[in-house]
């Protein structure tokens, strides 16, 4: 992997890590599910007008949109709105990696290697430690909701694998067409039209302008720029070389939350975070057997 691509991979991790700060700002103004609907609607309109169809089966696009888009962000936004710390959310969401491995084994009959099982066990141990810590602070529900968001992301990953799009960026952009309608409907039921209207009518306030800036970052920087760069890197380099860089996302998210929001994780949470990252890394690496040495002179 060229040095330029390594720097780009680090840049994407930074952009995605800061994305959680932008989400935090957005939720200061908009109801959580309504915020998710707006986040995808802003991308969906220009996608329909200007982006070519990704040439995949509709059921896989729907599966990706409902899993990665609707489920993940509905659970994540509600979790953060109900008390999930911003930095911790960026870490717990990485549970999507071991979830994807397990779901791939169950539904796609993909082989799970011993080191992947070991990585999953490590990640689960870290998550359990964090959940135990959160339960002591009466914040277990946001933790569970974030894990459900990670599980939804994993189901979306299965649809992506089955779709096998020729242009992953077009596929990702068209995925944004799926979530707005179900999320708007869910918001109407859970949050009500009055809350939706109030969040729009007060956009001129300082909190509203801050939220608008956060939403702009999520859409343009986190989604368009970040996903575009990541897709380019995945096309130029082996997936196993690029994907571990995503482990920098929670490092950035936790650090940025500490600096800008004053969130201070406990020693147990820091240790558990290291265990989770190590487990996800172990589960994402691919080991190949070395060929048997030939009995010849070298």
From TrEMBL:
Membrane spanning residue stretches: 7-27, 33-53, 60-80, 86-108, 115-133, 139-159, 171-189, 209-230, 242-261, 267-285
Gene3D superfamilies in the record: 1.10.3730.20
EamA domain boundaries: 7-130, 143-282
Localization of this protein: Membrane
UniProt cross-references to InterPro entries, sorted A to Z: AA-Vitamin_Transporters (IPR050638), EamA_dom (IPR000620), EmrE-like (IPR037185)
Gene Ontology cellular component list: membrane
Alphabetical UniProt keywords: Membrane, Transmembrane, Transmembrane helix
Keyword hit for Transmembrane helix: yes
Source organism superkingdom: Bacteria
Membrane topology: Multi-pass membrane protein
Similarity remark: Belongs to the EamA transporter family.
Classification via PANTHER family: AMINO-ACID METABOLITE EFFLUX PUMP-RELATED, INNER MEMBRANE TRANSPORTER
Name by which UniProt lists this protein: EamA family transporter
Organism annotation: Amycolatopsis eburnea
């Amino acid at each position: 992997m060229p040095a330029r691509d390594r720097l780009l991979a680090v840049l994407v991790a930074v952009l995605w890590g800061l994305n959680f700060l932008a989400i935090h700002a957005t939720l200061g103004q908009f109801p959580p599910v309504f915020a998710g609907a707006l986040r995808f609607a802003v991308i969906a309109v220009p996608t329909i007008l200007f982006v070519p169809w990704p040439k995949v089966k509709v059921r896989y696009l729907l599966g990706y949109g409902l899993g990665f888009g609707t489920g993940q962000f509905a659970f994540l936004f509600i979790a953060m709105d109900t008390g999930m710390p911003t930095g911790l959310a960026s870490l717990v969401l990485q549970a999507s990696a071991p979830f994807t491995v397990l779901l791939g084994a169950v539904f796609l009959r993909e082989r799970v290697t011993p080191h992947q099982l070991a990585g999953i066990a490590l990640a689960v141990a870290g998550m359990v430690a964090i959940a135990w810590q959160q339960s002591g602070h009466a914040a277990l529900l946001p933790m569970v909701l974030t894990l459900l968001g990670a599980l939804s992301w994993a189901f979306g990953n299965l649809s992506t694998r089955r779709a096998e799009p020729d242009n992953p960026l077009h596929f990702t952009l068209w995925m944004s067409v799926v979530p707005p309608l179900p999320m708007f409907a869910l918001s109407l039921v859970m949050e009500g039209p009055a809350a939706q209207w109030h969040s729009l009518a007060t956009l001129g306030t300082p909190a509203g302008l801050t939220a608008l800036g956060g939403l702009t970052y999520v859409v343009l920087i986190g989604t368009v720029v970040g996903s575009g760069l990541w897709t380019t890197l995945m096309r130029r380099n082996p997936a196993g070389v690029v994907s571990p860089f995503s482990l920098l996302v929670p490092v950035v998210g936790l650090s940025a939350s500490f600096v800008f929001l004053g969130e201070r994780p406990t020693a147990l949470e820091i240790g558990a975070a290291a265990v989770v990252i190590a487990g996800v890394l172990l589960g994402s690496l691919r080991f190949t057997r070395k060929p048997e040495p030939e009995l010849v002179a070298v």
